[in-house]
Amino acid sequence: MVFLALGGIGLSLAIRELPPRLVGFGRHASHWKNHQGEFLNWGEGTHSSMAVSRLPSGVLHYHNAGKIQASSESRGLLLQRMLGHLATLLPMQASQSVLVIGCGAGITAGSASIDSRVEQVRIGEIEPLVPQVVAGCFAGPNFHVVRNPKVAVTIWGPLPFGDLSGCFPEGLIFGNSAGPAFR
User: What structural domains and CATH numbers belong to the chain?
Assistant: First the structure.
């Protein structure tokens, strides 16, 4: 039993940290060996690995699951902000509360939070590192969303994807992967 414990300790000391390029680009890391950017932050979270990189031009990228999920580049930024601003196009009662599924870089939630008609934004995130680290790196593009008093971040376990009405009975529900779901 003692040998098994010592072997486990020895093995854990031998395991090195994942290189940031592998965390950021996953199985395609070898294709990005000449990547000109720098990794500002990377880490192994509870449920996923994430990274934030910056290109020499200043463009930020949020990587999760070995892919770029969000960017401060104008093409990606406009799409993420448009999704957040959809709340402003709907009748007043429907847009007072917004639930954003997945924090990511916080750009969708940040765009919804700056509308004066939106009273509350809830962000449901599975990975605790994302709102703590990633949203802070994107504070400019996301309008400092995690520090906004109208915004509440909740770390969720497994989600009841079939029906979110019990989690958020009123307002709008946004999820970047599947698009907005209106109730």
Answer: 19-74 (no CATH), 80-182 (3.40.50.150)
Beta strands in 109-156 (DSSP E): 120-125, 151-155
Question: Terminal CA-to-CA distance of the chain, rounded, Å?
Answer: 57
Q: What are phi and psi of 93, to 5 degrees?
A: -65, -35
Average pLDDT, the chain: 81
CB 127 within 8 A of CB 50: yes
* Residue pair 98/86 in contact by the 8 Å Cβ criterion: no
Q: Is the pLDDT of residue 181 over 80?
A: no
Q: What is the pLDDT of residues 131-152, one digit of tens each?
A: 999 999 999 999 999 999 999 9
Beta carbons within 10 angstroms of residue 100's beta carbon: 31
- Confidence (pLDDT) at 110: 95
Residues 183 and 165: their CA atoms lie apart, in Å, by 8
Amino acid at 74: S
